[in-house]
Amino acid sequence: MNTRMNAPADEPMRVLVVEDQGMFRALLTEWLGEWGRFEVAGAAASGEEALALLASAQPDVAIVDLQLPGMDGLEFVRSARQVRPQMRALVLSSLVDPLALTRVRESGVEGYIEKDATPEQFADALGAVADGRLFYSARFNETLAREGAKAQAVGKILSRREQEVLAHVLAGKTSRETGEMIGLSARTVEFHRANVMAKLGAANMAELTANARRLGVG
Fold it and tell me: How many domains, in total, are found in the chain?
């Protein structure tokens, strides 16, 4: 990754990287270090760890993975802005689930880009967010234009936590794996999963998958 942005202003913008995958986090911080415009103020593997860094990092922009262990990326941004309301956020994810993308749009974050984006696309996204503009990828906009209304309807049926559990269930995660990713016990995940199945009128996994897809999820 050697894409560079415009010449730096008087002081580089401070960036906090919140990403649980160590290799990807290291690549991001190395890449940002090549730009004169940005200074890596801190890097964290979870939202909780990132919140502990806020006072010392004082980030202008946070690059945040949507799926984090414990609190997810949107929960981190919401909590961080209670301490540092001026912080702007660019969310990263490999998800193309319209339900997850609807949550991103409704959260008020300034940008979203997929993890498989090119360096040039990522540079455009981060540059826009740093400049005070909004940036949502073409795939993000296309997905919500096609399935957003259905996803919003599902959002009215399921709680935020139930939506998270549904996304992991449809991705083939077990209750234990889901619990580890979102900071819940496997038993609590099973409770939410049962509620999701009841609300979507599914008696088994096949029906849950079919009903979710009919509603534009998964």
Answer: 2
